[in-house]
Amino acid sequence: MKHRQLSIRKMVLTATLAGLAFVLSTFVYFPSMAPFQHFVNVLAAVFLGPWYGCLAALLAGVMRMISGRTIQAIAGAVFGPILGGLVYRKTKNIYLVFVGEFIGTAIIGALVSYPLMKWFYALDAQSPFFYIPYYAPSALVGAAMGVLVLLILKRSGTLHRLTEQLNR
Q1: pTM above threshold 0.85
Q2: Contact indicator for 7, 51 with CB cutoff of 8 Å
Q3: Cα–Cα distance between 134 and 32 in angstroms, integer?
Q4: Contacts by residues 31-36 (CB-CB < 8 Å, ≥ 24 positions apart)
């Protein structure tokens, strides 16, 4: 019974964070940037871990694709919470979640986007490194916002209470 309640809590938070990422990324629009996706990814990596965090990013990316974005909405979102969540699980260091989100998005996500854009949209950017300069600022800004919120929650003691409650 306890495991089932934990799973339900994590699924509900996963769906909530996916919805938040979708809404913020859709209605607070920056050309070629989705910093709020990375903001939510950092929160998801800490609260949910790598796999539920990835699921939240995948759900948000699919919703963004349905609303007219390219497959980059998924490719640029899913690797950050995996890497950030794995790093946080191992170290419990909020700053390293930032590094994981940045590398997962700005490097891995950007490199994965190149062949996907070529296959699905016939866009040849001439270099697998083409998307890195576009992904890096978004990941940098969004991950920094996420870390800032987590640090505020940590300082107030709320971060510990929330994670304890989520994992009960």
Answers
A1: yes
A2: no
A3: 7
A4: 32/134, 32/138, 33/134, 33/137, 33/138, 33/141, 34/64, 34/73, 34/76, 34/77, 34/138, 34/142, 35/138, 35/139, 35/141, 35/142, 35/145, 36/142, 36/145
Q: Is 33 helix (H, G, I), strand (E, B) or coil?
A: strand
pLDDT for 33-50, tens place per residue?
789 999 999 999 999 999
CA–CA–CA angle 58, 59, 65 (5° rounding)? 85
| pLDDT value of position 1 | 53
Paired strand residues for 33: 30
CA distance linking residue 45 with residue 103, whole number of Å: 14
Q: How many CB atoms lie within 10 A of CB 76?
A: 31
d(CA 164, CA 168): 6
Amino acid at 42: V
The answer to whether residues 81 and 45 touch, using CB atoms and an 8 Å cutoff, is: yes
Among 15, 59, 48, which Cα is nearest to 146's? Answer: 48
| Residue 54: CB atoms within 10 Å | 25
